[in-house]
Amino acid sequence: MAGIRDDAAVKSGGESNPLIIPVLDDPITISEVEQLARRRLPKAVYDYYSCGADDQYALRRNVDAFSEVYVLPRILRDVSLVDTSTTIFGWTTTLPVAFAPSAMQKLADAGYEALVVTVDTPVLGNRLNERKTPLILPPHLRLANIKNANATKSGEPTVNRLLMDARTAEQAKEILKKAKKTIHSPELTWDVLSHLRRSTSMKIILKGIMAPEDARLAVERGADAIVVSNHGGRQLDCVPSTLEVLPQVAKAVDGKIPVLFDGGVRRGSDVFKAIALGADLVLIGRPVIWGLGYKGQEGVETVVNILGRELSRTMALAGVSSIADIKKAAVHMTREPIGVSKL
């Protein structure tokens, strides 16, 4: 069949393995986009983007959690015109999907309207794949936000990477002592919001909220929005999936500010489920990277188109014709959402 490859057969020169699912050169799922990107990216680069912390339970939990939420189909409803557009911060988009902030992308002149503050990285998580296959930036790329602030030479690991790889507490303390202000700050508190308010007129979005109490504090302290995120499972491995905490976080916010969501989204139906459970906007991170690795801008457009068609189809089969009509009653969770209980 034209356009289908079976790499196992190509490499062996023999017959194809019937247990291997062929991957389309013209992918029709996000999973296929990832497989194609993996073939094109150097191992260190793929590992950097794909790995999670420790045993990667949180990474897998983010994806698997969607299989424990079911969409309840409704029948005999007019879904001849399904509208997937939504509005946030006065900006209308054709899909309730945006690109999550992802490190190591070279960006310029993008017309930023909001400042996203990552609040869940006082230190880097224990990313084993990164430690075993270190990512060395090519000569034409640099970490612009810490230019000339890091003592390491070109081709050497950053201070953050050295700290992540420290084998003893004493070694970590010595690295911190020498690092000064060139690493993720473990000193940030809620006062950072006041400081940022004095420094910028942009909207301030806090990324990395998992606890309902932190969501309430974000509202009280004046954040313009929050992102329910566990950093793609790259920080603390023994955390719940973002989908499991989303309903309680959204309940804590109580509609006062937008709730953005990321973590494990691989299908348009995942977008539907996240919105039903309280998200105003869904962010995708790794799928964008896979699209770039697969075919640059065209690859990213492929990812967006796949999610758009899947979302539209899910809405029609669920009897929903607009994003505003996606309510919690449209889905069923097999487990109770996770929140923080008072002792």
Automatic annotation (TrEMBL):
One of its GO terms (molecular function) is FMN binding. It comes from the Eukaryota. The active site is at H231 (proton acceptor). InterPro entries: Aldolase_TIM, Alpha-hydoxy_acid_DH_FMN, FMN-dep_DH, FMN_HAD, FMN_hydac_DH_AS. Glyoxylate binds at Y48, R127, H231, R234. It holds the Pfam family FMN_dh. Its cofactor is FMN. FMN binds at P101, S102, A103, T118, K207, S229, D262, G263, G264, V265, R266, G285, R286. Keywords: Flavoprotein, FMN, Oxidoreductase. Residues 22-336 form the FMN hydroxy acid dehydrogenase domain. The keyword Iron does not apply. Coiled coil: none annotated. PROSITE patterns: FMN_HYDROXY_ACID_DH_1, FMN_HYDROXY_ACID_DH_2. Belongs to the FMN-dependent alpha-hydroxy acid dehydrogenase family. PANTHER family: 2-HYDROXYACID OXIDASE 2 (PTHR10578:SF149), S -2-HYDROXY-ACID OXIDASE-RELATED (PTHR10578). This is Related to L-lactate dehydrogenase (Cytochrome). It comes from Phialocephala subalpina.
